[in-house]
Amino acid sequence: MNSPFDFQNKNVLVVGGTSGINRGIAETFAKTGARVAVVSRSQEKVDDTIQSLKKCGAADAKGFAADVRQPEAIKNGIAELHKAWGDFAVVVSGAAGNFPALAMGMSPNGFRAVIEIDLLGTFHVMQAVYPFLQKPGASIINISAPQALIPMVGQSHVCAAKAGVDMITRSLCLEWGSEGVRINSIIPGPIDNTEGMKRLAPTEAMRAAVIKSVPLQRMGSTNDIANACLFLASDLASYITGAIIPVDGGWAQGGAGMMGAGLAEFFIHAK
Q1: Which among 4, 158, 169, 256 has the fewest CB atoms less than 10 Å away?
Q2: Which domains does the chain have, with CATH numbers?
């Protein structure tokens, strides 16, 4: 029996795929034999990731450097990938920006930067990939965040941006479903050894509190998110679209709210 997670020679694009959760996703698809392409702002990181993808077993690996805030650069790069490989079976959109900041201490440019990377960036990726999706059969996965559902102190910019990302997911589920294109969001919980977690839990005390607040009593790994992506991209998930799926050890059931409380305490002591 063939594995449902065999993506041999299928075309996979991971935007933001050179670090953290997204790199883990790209490397996991590479291990299934897929052709994997990555996009990030750093050509150096793109080149390093391509080498890693080849070592992981990718049928081929490519990438280009571009900022998701620049729609023409994203469109042109994706068009070049399509010229080389053909239609995309899987697209993971995960570019994101974050920093803790109270609303009254945040500059308009700081708020705008997160909206432009997370929300506008997602929109730019969706517009750029649409002409090159496998129809029917393509699976799009947007990487969201707990802030899309749970308000947190010092995260008003991310809460607004990621809530918007999930509404893009829901809206495009309606617009593209008739063509056989599925689109879902994954909400990662606290994922260990990522830049985002280091920023949101900068002290050992906050890190310990986060772990205690997760029902499964551990932080997640990039493999946890990558495995969920494999499932959503596979035929096992052929009737799943428009879903917003937490992959968080149960954190959203109550524990995630403590992150906001922890950040509030952090800001109080920082004054």
Answers
A1: 4
A2: 11-270 (3.40.50.720)
